[in-house]
Design brief:
Helix content: 25-40%
Structural class: alpha+beta
Number of helices: 10
Largest sheet: 4 strands, antiparallel
Radius of gyration: 22 Å
Number of strands: 10
Number of domains: 3
Length: 284
């Protein structure tokens, strides 16, 4: 997005200008991209981190600066919905990022150069000897840990993609069940020591909102998708962890250890049930 002197000027002109999405206004414009035409937003709006053009193969859309005095901004939620519709055919996630901000032409995780995920034997081989372009995003984090070359934080595109993947997954997979006379969406499972556990939307949202500056944040969200199975194998390590924020509730901490990480899962226990509260991961 911001790569040259002109683009740097855009940043400094943020007080006077918006950015506006423009199509080529001809019969070759895709209908879903035509809906984005004239979307107008502040320069620092998160919309531009996901839907800055190109938004598909051979996309000819552009962005221009417009004066705030001449245009009204598009409501953020409306713009995001239009962006999601415009990139709905991008099932491989190639265009859901901003190449200028990330300083790269394609995101780190993409299926065109990553071929090992389906038969991944992570933890069984020395990742330090595997080329980066043969590693998925999760394995690349492990690779960086192995050679002790860690970035300060995960890139914004990695965070956004991990958040979206988790939300899309639980919205699709979480069943609707009867709780008393009302319907609610939740998973039910049991711990190794026989405790019934409820996993609902709050667990995934709490996991998404916490510790976003952690280098392992995208990987943590991947583990959150497997929490319903991991809690079955986890060991109880603290049956009564105190909490300043929840003084009237009991927290139980469970730990699961695989080949590479320690996975900590915390249950929030009250008279309504035992709810999976949050998950964290640590390098062994």
């Amino acid at each position: 997005m911001f790569l040259n002197k002109k683009s740097a000027t855009i940043l400094t002109d943020g007080d006077r200008h918006y950015l506006q999405y423009r199509t080529q206004h001809d019969d070759k414009v895709w209908p879903e991209h035509a809906a984005l035409d004239r979307v107008t937003l502040p320069i620092d709006d998160p919309f531009w981190e996901e839907y800055y053009p190109p938004n598909g193969w051979n996309c000819r859309c552009t962005i221009v600066q417009v004066r705030k005095s001449k245009y009204q901004p598009t409501p953020h939620d409306e713009a995001m919905a239009l962006g999601e519709e415009a990139t709905g055919k991008d099932t491989k996630g190639i265009f859901h990022f901003n190449p200028g901000i990330e300083q790269k032409t394609i995101p780190d995780y993409n299926p065109y150069i990553i071929r090992r995920c389906r038969d991944c034997d992570q933890g069984k081989e020395k990742l330090a000897f595997v080329p980066d372009n043969e590693l998925c995003a999760a394995c690349k984090l492990i690779h960086q840990l192995e050679i002790k070359k860690l970035p300060i934080h995960a890139s914004r595109s990695q965070v956004i993609r991990a958040q979206k993947d988790l939300v899309d997954w639980y919205k699709k997979e979480m069943p609707s069940v009867m709780v008393g006379k009302c319907k609610a969406r939740r998973f039910y499972t049991n711990t190794k020591d026989g405790l019934e556990v409820i996993i609902n939307k709050n667990f995934y949202q709490e996991t998404i909102n916490k510790y976003q500056d952690d280098i392992l944040f995208p990987l943590k969200l991947a583990y959150a998708r497997k929490a319903i199975d991991l809690i079955k194998e986890a060991e109880l390590v603290n049956p009564d962890e105190p909490s300043i924020d929840h003084p009237n509730e009991i927290f139980k901490v469970y730990k699961y250890i695989d080949d590479c990480y320690e996975v900590e899962m915390k249950l929030r226990c009250n008279r309504d049930g035992n709810y999976l509260h949050i998950i964290r991961i640590y390098k062994k």
